[in-house]
Structure prediction request, 450 residues.
Amino acid sequence: METVDFEIYEEKNKTNFYEITVCEFTEIYKTYYKRVFKYICYRIDDQHMAEDLCSQVFEKIIEKYSSFSRNNMTFEGWIFAIARNTITDYHRKNKRRGFHFSLDYIIEMVSSKPSPDDMILTEENNSYLFQALAHLNERDRAVVSLKYGAELKNTEIAKLMGLSESNVSVILCRSLKKLQKKLVRGGFKYE
Amino acid sequence: MNKKADMNEFKQLQDLLINVDVDSSKYEYIILNRLKYKIETGTIKSNYIEKDDLYMKRKFFRPATTVALALSILILGGSATYASGTLDSIIAHFQIGNAQIQQYAMDSETKDVNTASYDESLLQEDTSSDEKSLTLEEVKKVAKGDIKLPNYVPEGYAFENATASFEGAGVDVVYSNKSGDTIVILASSTKEATCGVATTEEVSETMIDGKKVMLSGNCALWESNGVTYQLYWNYKNSDEVNLTSSDMKQVPKIIESMK
Prediction:
């Protein structure tokens, strides 16, 4: 494959390029970080990978920032398309085998509840929830993650996944029913 | 447990999903500071440059074993604005078999999930195993009631995978073509296994093979012999939200073949 040295090419032809500034990136990061992180947590079984994958997503945002075009999709949709592709790549590399759930990670999570009993209950409930999520098939889990992790609207999810809006709503309904059953069978207690 | 309590738990599940604390703050500034440092030192920079109004990707020589992940952003036309908050502007409500269709106003946020078909039998013991991908023969065996699957699919489409739920009372069959377009057929023989539809698209009614069929965007719903069917035709690389005219002619053929 031929390679092109764009650095030399730039000097000769004075091409334009746009590098994201630290300020711009910080604004974007602070706006989307929590949703991206949560979306990743919902999509993967090994929660310890969330930090690494989240970092990868924002690195790609920096690298591809110049290529974003508002004519094609919203900025929010573009960010979660990158996140989704990063997760896809992660699964492809790791070829998920069964359930790699890290209870230790969940135990580390600290709730804001003052009561020790409430803290234990919250940690246990989060544990049940992630275990239940892991039993959804990949497509359903992706839709649920985009809805409740990334906080996207049904219409945006439909665009990202190449589904109709109606299909998205049905997938959400069916997935919630499945999650409900899993949680109740697993001893989940609503607070 | 009564139905009201069940509905409350369903709502609580949604709240849990929205509000669960994944402790994102633990890594927030670690990642931010790392990436800020990379930008400031030039360790990470844009891979795209603009030349003559075109964005061209820098090419780097990579070893043969490097992963070649292509950017798979779906390029769809149009932009959308989304209302904040939640507005439940239901403008029409339809029922077909066990499925309810709620049509919302176009400029309102679609209701998160149509729970109208929620059934109090949800908490009954479900001994079915976790969903696994089934072959066409396997799903036909496990399907309960009078569930029929198509004997005709449009040219270029082939069976991709299937799953069953609620002990065979619900089946989900996917057919796909090489372009990644999919035809998804959901068949359910009980109310429990049926989900409602929430849509902002127009809903119309037609007759196909003696059956009343509701059409909405890429979706067709009908009922036959106690089974509720939902057909979704998804186009992967298109912003088409309605069935094309040629595909519309295929839908009756699919439905008629389900005997």
Observations:
- The CA atoms of residues 132 and 236 of chain B lie 24 Å apart.
- Chain B touches chain A through 93 residues (CB under 8 Å).
- Confidence is low (pLDDT under 50) at residues 61-87, 115-130 of chain B.
